[in-house]
Amino acid sequence: MTNRQNETGALVQSLRLWPGVAIAVVILLIRFVIPYFVPEFMMYGALAGLLGGLLVMLWWVFFSRAPRADRWGGTLFMIAALFGTHFLLHESVATSGMGMMYLIYALPILSMAFVVWAVACRGLPEGPRRVTMVATILLSCGVWIMLRTDGVTGEGSAELSWRWVPSSEEQFLAKTDNGPTASADSPTLVIEADWAGFRGSARNGIVTGLQIETDWSASPPQELWRREMGPSWSSFAVGGDFLYTQEQRGENEVVLCYKVSTGEPVWRHDDAARFWESMAGAGPRATPTLNKGRIYSLGATGIVNALDAGTGSLVWTRNAATDTGAELPIWAYSGSPLVVDDLVIVAASGSLVAYDAASGEPRWTGPKGTVSYSSPQLLTIDGVAQILLSRGSGVSSLAPADGKLLWEHAYPGEPIVQPALTADGDVLVSAGQGKGLRCLSVTHGSGEWQVTERWTASGFKPYFNDYSVHKNHAFGYDGSILACTNLEDGTRKWKGGRYGGQLILLADQDLLLILSERGDLVLVSAKTDQLTEVARVPAIKGKTWNHPVLVGDILLVRNGQEMAAFRLSLAEGSREVSTRASKR
Questions:
Q1: What letters, b where the CB count within 10 A reaches 16 and e where it falls short, cover 340-354?
Q2: Would residue 273 count as lying in a domain?
Q3: Which end of the chain has fewer CB atoms at under 10 Å, N or C?
Q4: Do the Cβ atoms of 492 and 459 come closer than 8 Å?
Q5: Is the pTM above the cut of 0.85?
Q6: How does residue 186 score in pLDDT terms, banded at 50, 70 and 90?
Q7: Residue 29 is part of which domain span?
């Protein structure tokens, strides 16, 4: 049949549909199906989805055999609907990185819906055909107006909700009692750290001198208490019966103290500051540091506080952004303060500033650096104590006393995880998403530092999930999947288990205690032969990126919605080391 339309306007000659159908099937597979089973393919799938959407438009305009008015009118209307909808989106979808995320989701869905329309409505008369085409485009784009995002998962998928449903933060604020404020009249307590702050005193996530019962069917973790809280990606510092963390409460950024034994609030300190971005949400990112009876905190916008750990009263405050001239990065200031002798060292993105611990006066400012979400790390390399910071240009080492640059190594990226040492004294660094773990040989001779790359492990790419070093192997994440890598040459020993989240290494037991991104507690054997999951129980609800803390037999976990404390059953030989914890 040679005519395209009969007298009713219906398409009586078959459209050339197979190219559009083929493209739509490929979009479905590459953009949605494969990333579901292979999350590290997400980035490629997103790019393929955009390309596929453009190919659908090209097919419709040039190869579909549809009437010219349908071809050009439909394509132009798709483009207009995509960009016009953007002005009506919820701010969480329209702003920051989520603006591109909208196109990454909306264009492939629109293009697939358009192909389905073309197949289903090809026999309709001209009027109904065009009405249904317009309706298909409007519905495919308009549904995004009804949605908001609560951020993304560690694998890059958007967490979508109806925009009229209150967020977890809004629900928390509607019913929360803010708790007691700081009081200088309270008796001062000299609180010593049991867990100094971010990933423990050495910032390596390793616990020694402790073994737990691993048969959780017989001796599961016992919940002591559970409490809702405001958003933040902070972890805890712990001293005695007190834990310290940060939250966002509306327009205030808050440092808080709670009882470890009961979860009851003890004091809070408020600053009028709020940080929010659409991919990770609201709230502080850094973990407070407990040292010699004081809490040192860094807020998301650069506020540095020294607080009395017993009362919460303000000792001094500074602004690291002002003191370093650093610009606020897209995911905020995230480095947890580091105390070295009488200095409090703070990372304002890629720049370091050291404050006098007693007075808060700046003592030195290090060389300006590019963006970083990592925390300053104190390491002793070739017999010399130094502070390492992974930043956008690479890793830099500074002298603790005066901030003098000792050495640096170029490894560009957006680093989040901590540098670490191997048993042989080599330095391990990661540059961020898609970048492998790199091993550096760092030596000091003839007054100069020599830095040499030993290897880069392409099969072990920690992004924002920290890893721990154990028996010359690294246990951590390649993307969101747990992996073990040999530190002799960087070869991967095994990979499996899509846990995400963060982990603690129980070194005496060759055991990983994982708090997964979904809020599960998981025990995995820290052995090099294979992945062996030992036990698993649910712990908290909601996306969980915060680091867990284990002090004695008390395990503390949290995310941006709630926190909880669990008592773990200790193995026979470890019970005497937990006297303090058992009395809580």
A1: beebbbbbbbbbbbb
A2: yes
A3: N
A4: yes
A5: yes
A6: low
A7: 18-162
